[in-house]
Batch of 2 targets.
Target 1
Amino acid sequence: GGMLEFIPVFGWMTTAAVIVGVGIASDLHWVWMSALLLLWRVTQDYFNLPRALGHRLEIHPLTIIFAVLAGAEVGGIIGIYLAVPLSALLFLIWRMRTSSVELKSAEPLLPEVRPSYVELTHD
C-alpha cells in the first residue's frame, strides 16, 4: 500500500479501496478501517506534508503532478522519487534568475536629481 502513495491523486484512493475491500471480505471492522484511513489522509495532507515541504516553495500542484509523471516516463521509479526535488530546484533557479533580471531593469538609468529649493525673500 505504501508504494501507491507516490501515484499522484489516485494512489491513496487505490490503497484505501484495497484495504477496505480486504476488511469487508475478511469480515473485519471495515468502518473503523475507513475512519482510520480518513484520519491518516487528513493528518498527512493538511499537517505533515505542508510542514515538511514548507510554504515558501510555492509550486503549483499541477506542476508537481506533471513533474512526477514526466519523471516516471524518463526515469521510472527513480524518476518518480527525484521529480519533485528536481522540479523544486529548477523552479528555484528560474525564480532567482528572473528576480535578478527584474532588479537590474528596475535600477534607474540616470542618477537621481534632487531639486534644490531657493528661498526668495522680498524686501
Target 2
Amino acid sequence: MPPLPSIRVSNSAILKSTSYIPTAVLVGGTSGIAQGRAEAFAHHTKGNARIFILGRNKQAAETNVQKATQELRKKHGVLVMSQGYFSVAGYTEAEGLDKKMAVHYYSRYEFIEELLPSLSRAKEGGEDAKVLATPTYNDLMLEGFAARNPTLTFGHAYPGFVRTNLGNAKDSPLWMKASVKLVVALTYPLSVSVRDCGEYLLHGVLETMKTPGAWRITNDGSDLGKKKYYGPDEDRKALWEHTVEVTKVK
C-alpha cells in the first residue's frame, strides 16, 4: 500500500493543476466512504470546487433519483456513489423492489444513466469525466456503461475495511449494532478511517483511472485488474437487460 502522506501530496498536486473548477457529485456523501471522499476533495481544492452531496434522511426520503438528477444536468466531472446500509431484516419491499438492492444497485444504475449527458459535456469541455461506485454487482453494470460510452471512465472500488456507521441502520437489532461496534474496536488496527479511505479512493480516480473504460481499483486506489473477476459476456448482457427492465430506463 502506498504511503498515505505521498498519496495526499499527489492528490493535492493533481487537483491544484486543473485549469477548470472541478465538480463532483457524491451520492451517500453525508456519511461513510463518500463523506471521506468529499472531505478529501474539498481539502485539496481549498474550496475552489463545486461539490454536490446527496443523502437520504426523513425529509429527503420522498425524493427519487430522477428528481435529484434534474438539478445536476448541466455539467459535472466526477460521480461517486457509495450509498448503502447494512441490515439483517431480510427482504424488505419498497416500490416492488428489495430495499437493499434498490439502494445498493438499482439507484446507482439510474444515477449514471440520468447523468450521462452532463458527464459527456464535461469530457467534451476538456475536464475529467469519471464514475466511481461501490460495492458488488457493479463490475458488470459499469462494463455495460463503458461499452456504450467509450469516451468516459468508470470505476468500481473495493474500499476494504473502513470505520463507518454502516451497521447502524434503524431496523437493525440492538445486538447487531453492539456486535458491529465490538468488531470495529477489535479490528481497529486493520481498518482505516473514513477520511483516509477518501484519500486512497481519490488517488484511484485521479491517478489510476486515467484512460476511458471500466476499471476495478483496490482499497489503496491501485489497479485490481481481473483478480477475482466473475463476469462473462452473457452475464453482463443478462444483468443489463434485467436492470433496464426493472428501472424502466429506455
